[in-house]
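Good day; I would like, with your permission, to put a structural problem before you. What I wish to show you is a protein chain and, alongside it, a tokenised description of its three-dimensional fold. Here, with my thanks, is the record as I have it:
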Amino acid sequence: MPYCPNCGAEIEEDYLFCPECGQALRAVPREPVSFAHLVGRGLRCLLTPVRPPPPLYRPTDVVYERRPPYSPVRRYLLLGFILGVVGMFLMYGGEWLTYFGVTIIGMAPPILYFLWMRRNDRYEEEPLGMVLFTIGWGIFIGIFAGMLNSFLSEGFHLGGYIAAFTEEPLKALGVYLLARHKTLGREFNDHMDGLVYGSGAGAGFALMENFQYIYQNAVMGTTPLPSIAGIRAVSALGHLVYTGLTGFILGYAKAKRGYLRPTDFIAALIPGVILHALWNTLSILFFILAPLYAFIYYKNIKVAQRDEEFWGYRIRAPVE
């Protein structure tokens, strides 16, 4: 029986990777992944509750890559914190500190959703610095999303659905840039990682947006605080779902092809944009869409877990 040249574990002759250390035992071809294929894979994300996709049995060796020890993760932790604080000041001045209780009420649901999501990343936990960067990014780009939404809705009299086409690219851009980073991108290995980072950007945007809705309706308006806080607690999950699915497709493309192309960004946006536009257009179906979106999110998380287990992550995932 042959042995792994890296760790010496016994292996079968037809193994592509060592199940103990993840060492590539022979070259795995990097399959061409077209734009149309990624669009189709993204649409299948929406159907996962009724028809889960087949496992990705033959990923490229990037799923076993390890981030270099000298990567600037701590700098990104600080950058994420700065982006978040600056973003809140740009959006709301000092009001978010004056009414810090409202800030906490708006912050709690998306952060709790995200912590639950991160617990599902069981085999290769993502570095806190990179995670906090995506959360800070989601807060910071709120100022640009707000300007674009106002310009398009007021200047061109477009409906609320337009937010899906402005907010989703802005949120996902930070995730895409992280995935393409020369060194930190090696941490972005697969679709589970994409879900984590995409959900982080969505959580940041949701907590930023929650303050605005709660402040305007409960503090400056007449809506009871428990009512608007409850509505926003449910709505906040949507942003994690939309950008999480975008990250899922980016991670899938990287696991299957070995690298990302600029067109992957466009293809990855489609499922999130569809769900976001439907939410804003069919708000009357709030109590139907919310559990449906949560179920789609949950089932795609399970698909990502399943694939990592097929690759041997349950035995030994890449150690960072």
